[in-house]
Design brief:
Number of helices: 20
Structural class: mainly alpha
Largest sheet: 2 strands, antiparallel
Number of strands: 8
Mean pLDDT: 89
Shape: globular
Strand content: under 5%
Order of helices and strands: HHHHHHHHHHEEEHEHHHHHHHEEHHEE
Radius of gyration: 26 Å
Length: about 600
């Protein structure tokens, strides 16, 4: 188990070990004052003063405001001033901590300079030639805006059609709690000519081909077996989970997270009906009919690259609402979900107590053992450490996660989407346009032959009529938010709690029935929930495996940084939360 020593954002400025656990502690400040002053505060001042005068231990001296003793003296005549100075001290200490962290170097995979035609980078909604290659002047206008950071230069990006770029300035926004977007780094995505990228491309083609196969039928599907055999050709280049060094039906399209290979593919938190106060949410979704794919015709694909919306779901919606059964259903769920929807649902399920009403029953999950009110005889948590605090914090990190991941998208990587990659594959297979660039194992994949037999092109079949969003692929917004929100839930609840009465959908998705199998824990199902949302975007054809993998970790790191800053804000005796990270290690925050 670690506190922060293996996490670069939580090392001291010298990089040696974890910071003192009292670095941002109110009690550390009291200890520095000495017994007499502390006793005066405890006995002669109102209880609220204990928080009002919180001064982080080892913090830099107040600049122009006087030492802690002067704050104490000020309280005798002006409590408001004392509180304000103490708040200033806390903010300064947080800012100083992050200022002293090592500067992160944001590395790319080199494709943007390696290929002058920019074939390895995102360019949707800019103008393109007939092979889907971006107009050089338009791409230069994007790079000019990224280099300058000026709003006017972002307004001057040359566009190809009515589609708009999605919020390329979001990664430049600041937040006042937790790590800044520039302070968190990720490894570069695999280059387009790499074996790993080729394996991810093949995986995405199989995801498209298997969208209508129910997850519960993977073990008996010959098409699933064919997908596993194809991916196994890539050996170590394919980074998905394996058993005995092989991709198997029970590991296909899953992520190597603790508990993620246990039980059904879909998390219980995507199926269980959700208590919502005196209301409840039945988890059936609006999905589309089998075989509904988009942008498989070259003219429509090219028009979409140029920023035109040419297809829709008209006439394709399923008249019945169904529980999620397969990749197509999951893709529809992640198409128009609210930013923190999956995790807010999970939070409500975890908090609500179980009862005899199946439409309003929750799990009543116990809280994380670190919660200071867990065994308190006369108090319960509410605005701190209680249900409103948990729900609010879980939602709060979602928008922070978007800003962090948008910086990696626009200001760092500008990675191409699978939709654009499909154009490279098609033009190589049909016109030999990019010889020697794409991995030969991908070009020879039977998945490509199946796609061509169905559609007459080698383009990546999209689950959405608009294809991918109008922002780059790496890192992934859904996955980063998933990593952040699920980390908060694991910090707030007992991850070892066993879920009682788990469910699976009937084959038609119209009802739920009991699941019989190994125990499912809250921690495992929360990890699975994060994976479902992140990988659901891959199943839709709009993201890559490495997008999901690295973005989950990015969101987790961001959430830990916010938990760390908030720890010092509480008046309660709080030793921190201990939980399991996505890589299986234990951390205390």
């Amino acid at each position: 188990m670690t506190t922060f020593e293996n996490d670069p954002i939580h090392r001291t400025a010298e990089g040696a070990g974890a910071p003192d656990s009292k670095r941002l502690s109110r009690r550390g400040f009291l200890g520095r004052l000495g017994g007499a002053a502390a006793a005066t505060m405890a006995s002669g001042m109102a209880g609220s003063v204990l928080s009002g005068l919180a001064r982080p231990a080892n913090a830099a001296p107040l600049q122009g405001e006087g030492p802690e003793e002067e704050i104490l003296a000020a309280h005798a005549t002006d409590p408001g001033t004392a509180r304000r100075l103490a708040s200033y001290n806390y903010r300064m200490s947080c800012a100083t901590y992050w200022k002293n962290q090592p500067v992160v170097q944001h590395l790319t995979n080199g494709d943007e300079t390696r290929y002058p035609s920019r074939i390895g980078n995102y360019s949707k909604a800019l103008p393109h030639n007939s092979f889907g290659e971006v107009d050089p002047t338009a791409y230069a206008s994007l790079l000019n805006a990224v280099a300058s950071g000026k709003p006017a230069d972002y307004d001057g990006i040359v566009m190809g059609g009515p589609m708009k770029l999605t919020n390329p300035q979001a990664g430049l926004a600041f937040d006042l709690q937790g790590a800044d977007s520039y302070a968190l780094g990720v490894v570069p995505p695999p280059p387009i000519a790499s074996g790993e990228m080729g394996s991810e491309g093949v995986e995405n083609y199989w995801m498209a081909l298997l969208r209508d196969v129910n997850f519960l039928d993977y073990s008996t599907s010959p098409d699933v077996a064919a997908a596993c055999a194809d991916l196994n050709r890539f050996g170590a280049d394919f980074k998905g989970p394996k058993v005995g060094g092989k991709v198997l039906p029970k590991t296909l399209f899953r992520d190597p997270l603790p508990g993620n290979l246990n039980g059904p593919y879909i998390s219980q938190f995507m199926w269980l009906n959700t208590p919502f106060g005196v209301e409840y949410v039945e988890r059936k979704i609006k999905t589309v009919m089998p075989g509904t794919d988009h942008l498989t015709g070259y003219d429509n694909w090219l028009a979409t690259q140029n920023g035109d919306l040419v297809e829709s779901f008209a006439g394709q919606l399923d008249p019945e609402r169904r529980y999620i059964r397969n990749g197509r259903d999951l893709a529809m769920w992640v198409h128009i979900d609210i930013l923190f929807q999956a995790y807010f649902n999970a939070c409500l399920i975890l908090i609500a107590p179980p009862n005899d009403d199946p439409t309003a029953s929750g799990l009543g999950c116990t809280l994380n053992p670190g919660n200071p009110y867990l065994n308190n005889a006369n108090q319960s948590g509410f605005a701190t450490f209680g249900a409103p605090a948990i729900k609010g914090l879980m939602c709060e990190v979602a928008n922070r996660a978007l800003k962090v991941t948008w910086h990696k998208k626009w200001q760092v990587n500008r990675r191409l989407r699978p939709e654009e990659w499909g154009g490279l594959v098609h033009n190589q297979k049909v016109h030999s346009r990019f010889p020697g660039v794409l991995d030969a194992r991908q070009l020879n994949s039977p998945a490509l032959d199946r796609v061509f037999a169905q559609n007459g092109t080698y383009l990546m079949p999209m689950a959405f009529p608009e294809g991918c969003p109008t922002h780059p692929s790496y890192t992934a917004g859904h996955a980063t938010v998933a990593g952040a929100c699920v980390t908060i839930l694991k910090a707030m609840f007992d991850e070892n709690y066993v879920i009682l009465n788990p469910v699976i959908p009937t084959p038609d998705g119209l009802s739920l029935e009991r699941y019989h199998g190994p125990n499912l824990t809250v921690g495992g199902e929360l990890n699975k929930l994060a994976s479902n949302v992140a990988t659901g975007r891959n199943l839709a054809g709009v993201h890559w495996r490495s997008d999901a993998r690295e973005s989950l970790k990015l969101g987790e790191t961001l959430a830990i940084s916010i938990l760390r800053d908030q720890k010092a804000c509480y008046n309660e005796i709080f030793q921190g939360y201990t939980f399991t990270k996505f890589d299986g290690t234990r951390v205390t925050v």
